[in-house]
Amino acid sequence: MVYQNEAQIFDGKTLVEKDGKIEIKNPDFFRKKIVDDLIDTIILSDSNHLKRLCYFVAYNAGLAFGVIPSSIQGLYEARGKGAFSGFTVPAMNIRTLTYDLARAVYRAANKINAGAFIFEIAKSEIGYTGQRPLEYSSVLILAAIKENYTGPIFIQGDHFQVKAKNYLQDKDKELNPLKDLIKEAIDCSFYNIDIDTSTLVDLSKNNLDEQQKLNYEVCGQLTKHIRSLQPKNIDISIGGEIGEVGGKNSTPEELHAYIKGYLKEIKKLKGISKISIQTGTSHGGVVLPDGSIAKVSIDFDTLKKLSEIARKDYGLAGAVQHGASTLPNEAFHTFPEVGCAEIHLATQFQNIVYDYLPLPLKEKIYGWLHTTYAAEKKPDITNDQFIYKTRKNALGPFKKEIHSLPKEWREKISSILEEEFSFLFDKLRIKDTKNFVKEYVLPAIVEKKKEDFLKEEKDLGKLEGAD
Fold first, then answer.
1. I want to staple 306 with a disulfide (CB 3.0 to 4.6 A). Which of 186, 319, 325, 444 is the partner?
2. How confident is the model at residue 21, as a pLDDT?
């Protein structure tokens, strides 16, 4: 059900709102019925006011049910000190059917007592999926309530990226919108943010410090910005990056040059908790003419070596692997073995959803792509390649239609993705990591007023960045 007015939300029987706070009178009914109604209103309503009231309810209901947006910083600091090892944290970008897929994640996690996993959304994905940070975090919280998942949840801004060309033309014009996005994300409970200034690396320079200089300087500047905005008692986990995904593989020398320069830049501030490197992958994979994905050879030796350096020399959790969701299944068990701290997974989840969409809706989406993105249909690419590369752009415009699929379709897709998440969680060895989270992550409750959720969202224009 989509709420039509405020009185339907605060009906006095299940939900009561008083002095900017909510009281849940029937928790079981709230979980069984009201959560779904809140989700439908968030996704399908045309009323921004009602959507924002649902965000307000979602956040405060989450706290009431023990779902607390948190920073993974404490866990990563402990790993950097050698307190534990042996698993890799999956960071999952949910581009569509976010409620249903998040529920599948929580079900998979509950089965194995997993707690070390991250939900994330990239700067570019916020744009083309039509999911601003407040919607994204609210949906994730409601999904946790629905599946009776409790404890800290980690929500991350992925690839908050600086475009090199834009930066070199006008620094402030490029950085100010990114700073605005960072503030918006933090206000919306994103307490983990990956800064990607690796686009500013200039390999034409004569030495490594000069090559990495703009990268570490701008990341340092954005680190200071993040630290100035973080809520009381929360140290936001920040990620840095030394090699742009899809470029040349990273080296130990580059890592040292970047981190040493970065530490001088931030002085006594708490710095990054992990470092993203390039090991041979690309976002979305390399699409062959028949639409299949080319096999990729990952440089696991580089991943292992740089993870060790990051931990032993700088106390970081280790290295981060991007662009991994389309890798062959037999590759995933290796990431924990080589000490990879975090792995980013996105495109394959989208692919599975598309595989199981009803044919009429899929054909409608593909027809829209051929019309809307006709200019991108170059003579040297096949129709399969065109569809594969562009179909992510339909997720925002068709969000309501995808969410409005019959219940049995959504449940089928969610069930299939649950199997995928369970497979990944097993290979990445995150079973019983809820114990580590409980030991090293101290959740801090951020009090938020009703008016905090009723503010107009600032129009940040087109959001670009890594996919």
1. 319
2. 87
